[in-house]
Amino acid sequence: MENKLAFDSIPKDILDIGKALEFTGVDLDTFRELLGIFLQHVPSVAEDIQDGVISGDAVKVLKAAHTIKGSAANIHAGRIIEIAKAIEKSAGEGELEIVKDLLNGLSNEMSVLANYSGKISG
């Protein structure tokens, strides 16, 4: 019951655990593992976005943003999905300067998600 109360306190636009459990068909322990993998994996993909911005490689940015969007969709991390979509759109339009600001937003949301992840890890 304590875990249920804890993860119910996480805003659904940050992480909708109920939908994620239904979508993936896994139990809460396995979901915790998936979330941990996500939190470890996304920073390196975000570095690919940063590298693409620096080198002017919009395709690299778009592919990396798509990867993050798909991974975030698996765990129903809504805010991160929206940022990844915006990065994809900007990269697709060649607006890489906008991506710099979006990367800051992604970093912030990853920190928020990491902080909330502790509510379901105990």
Per-chain topology:
Elements: H1 2-8, H2 17-24, H3 28-55, H4 58-75, H5 78-92, H6 96-117
Helix pairs in contact: 3-4, 3-6, 4-5, 5-6
Describe this structure as you would to a colleague:
This protein has 122 residues and is mainly alpha-helical. It has a single domain, classed as Four Helix Bundle (Hemerythrin (Met), subunit A). Helix content is 80%, strand content 0%. It has helices at 2-8, 17-24, 28-55, 58-75, 78-92, 96-117. It starts with a helix and ends in a 5-residue tail after the last helix.
Biggest sheet features: none
The total of helices stands at 6
The number of E-state strands comes to 0
CATH topology: Four Helix Bundle (Hemerythrin (Met), subunit A)
User: Which stretches are low in confidence, meaning pLDDT under 50 for 5 or more residues running?
Assistant: none
In percent, how helical is the residue content?
over 70%
Shape: elongated
Q: Give the CA-CA distance, first to last residue.
A: 12 Å
What portion of residues belong to β-strands? under 5%
Let me know the CATH homologous superfamily: HPT domain
H and E order? HHHHHH
Radius of gyration: 15 Å
Class by SSE composition: mainly alpha
